[in-house]
Amino acid sequence: MIENRPVLTFLSHLILIFGVAMIAFPIWITFVASTHTDIRMTQVPLPLWPGDQLFVNLNETLIGEGAAGTNNVPVWRMMLNSLVMALSIAFGKIAISLISAFAIVYFKFPFRMMFFWLIFITLMLPVEVRILPTYEVVAKLGLLNSYAGLSLPLIASATATFMFRQVFLTIPDEMLESARIDGAGPMRFFWDILLPLSRTNIAALFVILFIYGWNQYLWPLLITQDTNMTTIVMSIKQLLESAEATPEWNIIMMTALLAMLPPILVVVFMQKLFVKGLTETDK
């Protein structure tokens, strides 16, 4: 029997609504600011309801010159750079982690566990710690101002390798023996059995890694001097710096909205697979 407590139910819902409002209010203000003119956003009081300049600001931001002081790089170009970088990092990390976890779990070779723990120890060395030697290697390879330079140094992932190792360990050994009896080689077993069973885990990891790659700021800032290789996250910072003299908050907020859109779409469309990948334990 479930006891009905109207007062407790009301208070719990009130707290939840307040929490949602606290999170959603800055996003709402961002949207409102993107629908007004730059002059209106410098007047007091600030508007709390949308204006009529949404499509004008969208066109100016996405296709036009954008805000002053940003070298006239259109936002669509910045979003394309971020998209290529995020997809390269996500697919690269997943591919390398799948192969390395497959080798560690299913192949018997000397110092196998030592190599696994060496990979795991790299969690202690994020990009910010090894950024100078990484930059030197990328520069000597001639990868500055390129998509390869943006993504290749970030595709190795100890976390993903550990995750796929744990997934592969839950797969019964009988499947491997059955595949051997049927004459399947290692790669056939990998493609036909391991990958389909890891589909939800791959999807969950893809969501996390896509957002990780999309939100990168320090590394792209370091290796890109060509404005055509600027990412969307870098551009927001540049907009804020250029806005010190003449703030164009409508363009800045529209750029922020466009920057939020791809990660939101990825999460929304892959939500079910994402949840399954994080909660499923048995294969």
Compact summary:
The protein is mostly helical and 283 residues long. Helices cover 67% and strands 0% of the residues. The mean pLDDT is 82.
Descriptive overview:
It contains 14 helices and no strands. 67% of the residues lie in helices and 0% in strands. It folds into two domains: 57 residues, no CATH class; 205 residues, MetI-like fold (Orthogonal Bundle). The protein has 283 residues and is an all-alpha fold.
Attribute tags:
single chain; 283 residues; mainly alpha; MetI-like fold; 14 helices
Number of strands: 0
CATH superfamily membership of the largest domain = MetI-like
Beta-strand fraction estimate: under 5%
| Backbone CA Rg | 24 Å
Q: Which class best fits the helix and strand makeup? A: mainly alpha
* Helical content class: 55-70%
Major β-sheet annotation: none
CATH architectural category of the largest domain: Orthogonal Bundle
- List the domain count as a whole number: 2
- What do we call the CATH topology of the largest domain? MetI-like fold
Instruction: State the end-to-end distance.
Output: 35 Å
Rounded mean pLDDT score: 82
Number of helices: 14
Which term fits the overall shape?
globular
